[in-house]
Amino acid sequence: MLRWLTAVAAAALVAAPTAAAAGPLARHAPVVVHDGRETDLLTSVEAFAGRVPGVPERRPRPRPAVYGRRAGPWLQYWLLYARNAQDRGVLRTGRHEGDWEMVQFRLRGGRAVRAVYAQHAGAESCGYSRVRRSRGRPVVFAARGSHAAYFVPGLRDRTWPDPNDEADGRGRRVRPRLVRITADSPPWMRYPGRWGASRAGWIPGEMDPPRGPAFQPQGRWSDPAAWAAAARPCTRRDCDERGECDGRETASAALLAALGLLGAGLSGGRRLRRAGGGGGGATAAGEPER
Q1: Where exactly are the structural domains of the chain?
Q2: How many CA atoms lie within 13 A of 28 on its CB side?
Q3: Which of 54, 103, 153, 202 has a C-alpha 20 to 30 A away from that of 113?
């Protein structure tokens, strides 16, 4: 009898984590698919041990993790990369240490109905039916270098000076472990500083490392619903081929060129007027008397 009770208790202990793992936060923890040429793969906070207060000692190799929480009807997942290696514009700026990205899903009646994926300073919002899944879990296609999150693989033709995003979906596929977070837990969540030592200089486009999830701008942490409402509508076929958005680039370049020509014309006109006024006086003074 004692042996049977011991076996039942052991089975209950084993089953408990399984039941917990079946909760909404665990069921919707995303699978991350990298670009085929990505070198900075999804990591965990252990990659910043010794540099960010509260981070536990680094393991020999940090295991990829996704940091999740529930905020009302929203399930929110934060993804960390060691750095953002994407350059911007002709000055080749934009790289920085640390890169926090985020995706979130809205529940209704226990089922996900909407997904919002962070993409640079903005986001894209789609119905959950547009989300690709892997063994029931939503899939995020991470762009090479920037790690912007996309619903489908492919190229995103962005307007200059922003480089195109490439998320071909041919790289490493990661099913990260889930770590639950709040504004106060684990201890590193209370760190208000930046995740990385690099700092932006005077060159336009340079960026500081980001702050942690609870200190992100635009209400990403403090108001998930407002951040979702500000996301652009689902346009998975917009700018998904190289050159498709060049019309906007051409218009922008033409406008800049026109403004440059206008400025040059105005400046040249002022110089001619000044030269003409000064030259006329000199000639008159040098003419012989009649």
Answers
A1: 19-242, 245-276
A2: 25
A3: 153
Q: Does an H or E element contain 104, and which?
A: strand 96-108
Close Cβ partners of 84 (under 8 Å, ≥ 6 residues apart): 40, 94, 95, 96, 98, 99, 145, 146, 147, 207
Q: How many helices (H) and strands (E) does the chain have?
A: 4, 14
pTM given for the model = 0.74
pLDDT confidence band for 94 (50 / 70 / 90): low
159-188: pLDDT as tens digits: 766 777 888 999 999 999 999 999 999 999
68-86 confidence digits (pLDDT tens) = 999 999 999 999 998 766 5
Strand-pairing partners, residue 108, are 111
Q: Please report the beta strands in 160-237, taking only residues with DSSP state E, as ranges in sequence order.
A: 165-167, 173-174, 177-180, 232-233
Contact 21, 128 (CB under 8 A): no
- Return all residues near 168 (Cβ < 8 A) that are at least 6 apart: 35, 36, 153, 154, 155
Share of the chain above pLDDT 90, in %: 49
